[in-house]
């Protein structure tokens, strides 16, 4: 556990919540940061006059923050750095990486990836793998969440999507108050 600090929570989101978030994504997504990837960020929703659509995210962000702080023993220390719905279409994949592997991502301390739909039901391919430690493979299932440190103790990859669209709610948390997403949302 200390070597590869991570936490898997089953059924963290209800089926209705997953559907609601997928619906928001379908209505508001924009071309994402990688080929075959679409995203809907909270910043984008607020900046495009859809601020009412951020309401369902608020309690989920707080529940996740509490889980991360409790599990990793950093109560009241974390800020949400990024919140977004992300979907991957046929052809998308990502090789081995840690989530803080760029200079502009160094503030990221923890990642939480909530699966909104399910492997072999809504898409094929798209398995999540940790390079070392257990569990080594995560089969995405709607409602489940994986939480892990953003550093090189949790190098991971996602195999190519072959069919359908794979949807997640992805958050990163930071100890650095200057990267607080809430402050950015209030400035728009
Ligand atoms: O969607 C996933 O399962 C993980 C995606 C990922 O590794 C990332 O966005 O950095
Ligand atoms: Fe990642």
TrEMBL record:
This is procollagen-proline 3-dioxygenase. Residues 67-175 form the Fe2OG dioxygenase domain. Its EC number is 1.14.11.7. Transmembrane segments: none annotated. Coiled coil: none annotated. One of its GO terms (molecular function) is metal ion binding. Its cofactor is L-ascorbate; Fe cation. It comes from Castilleja foliolosa. Gene3D superfamilies: q2cbj1_9rhob like domain. SMART domains: P4Hc. Keywords: Dioxygenase, Iron, Metal-binding, Oxidoreductase, Repeat.
